[in-house]
């Protein structure tokens, strides 16, 4: 199981399509974007995501920004027997709303494509780890409930990032891991 967990984090965060210009929220405001979000829907061509998507539940993402402007992401995912935590740091790219994460094994590109800051955000990530690049699109919401209109807007973006709606997963609500939003 320990091998699967880092892979799960990678699968959940796979983003960006190679060579594609991904738009970002005009006038992106990091201060308004920071805070707690629920990962309400995910679509990805990551092989690990595709294997695990049917068992996934709504999770919590806590986003903060370092004094340097880098994006710190804490995720809490309900698994079968516990709450799994992941922490990632993405560096500023020089363009507001675009962040990069790099390690010895992988490169990630994260774009905040669209947000109204108070209800929803659509985040696009491209991950390259020596294999075929994978693309992920995530719908983040401030509340657990997703409005049909926001979900419809999310679905309309799916073809623009090279994915097909048949692999979309709207994550079921979960009372699990709600009391711990990653402040450890």
UniProtKB/TrEMBL annotation:
<protein>
    <submittedName>
        <fullName>LCN15 protein</fullName>
    </submittedName>
</protein>
<dbReference type="InterPro" id="IPR022272">
    <property type="entry name" value="Lipocalin_CS"/>
</dbReference>
<dbReference type="Pfam" id="PF00061">
    <property type="entry name" value="Lipocalin"/>
</dbReference>
<dbReference type="GO" id="GO:0036094">
    <property type="term" value="F:small molecule binding"/>
</dbReference>
<feature type="domain" description="Lipocalin/cytosolic fatty-acid binding">
    <location>
        <begin position="34"/>
        <end position="174"/>
    </location>
</feature>
<comment type="similarity">
    <text>Belongs to the calycin superfamily. Lipocalin family.</text>
</comment>
<dbReference type="InterPro" id="IPR000566">
    <property type="entry name" value="Lipocln_cytosolic_FA-bd_dom"/>
</dbReference>
<dbReference type="InterPro" id="IPR012674">
    <property type="entry name" value="Calycin"/>
</dbReference>
<feature type="signal peptide">
    <location>
        <begin position="1"/>
        <end position="20"/>
    </location>
</feature>
<keyword id="KW-0732">Signal</keyword>
<dbReference type="InterPro" id="IPR002345">
    <property type="entry name" value="Lipocalin"/>
</dbReference>
């Amino acid at each position: 199981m320990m091998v699967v967990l880092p892979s799960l984090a990678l699968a959940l965060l796979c983003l960006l399509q190679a060579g594609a210009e991904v738009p970002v929220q005009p006038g992106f405001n990091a201060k308004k974007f920071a805070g707690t979000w629920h990962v309400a829907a995910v679509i990805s061509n990551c092989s690990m995501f595709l294997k695990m998507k049917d068992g996934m539940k709504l999770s919590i993402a806590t986003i903060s920004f370092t004094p340097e402007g880098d994006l710190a992401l804490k995720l809490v995912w309900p698994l079968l027997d516990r709450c799994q935590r992941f922490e990632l740091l993405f560096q500023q790219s020089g363009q507001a709303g675009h962040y990069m994460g790099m390690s010895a094994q992988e490169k990630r590109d994260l774009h905040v494509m669209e947000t109204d800051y108070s209800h929803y955000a659509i985040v696009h990530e491209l991950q390259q780890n020596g294999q075929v690049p994978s693309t992920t699109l995530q719908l983040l919401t401030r509340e657990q409930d997703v409005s049909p209109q926001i979900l419809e807007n999310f679905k309309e973006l799916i073809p623009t990032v090279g994915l097909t709606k048949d692999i979309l997963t709207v994550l079921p609500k979960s009372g699990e891991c709600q009391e711990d939003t990653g402040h450890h």
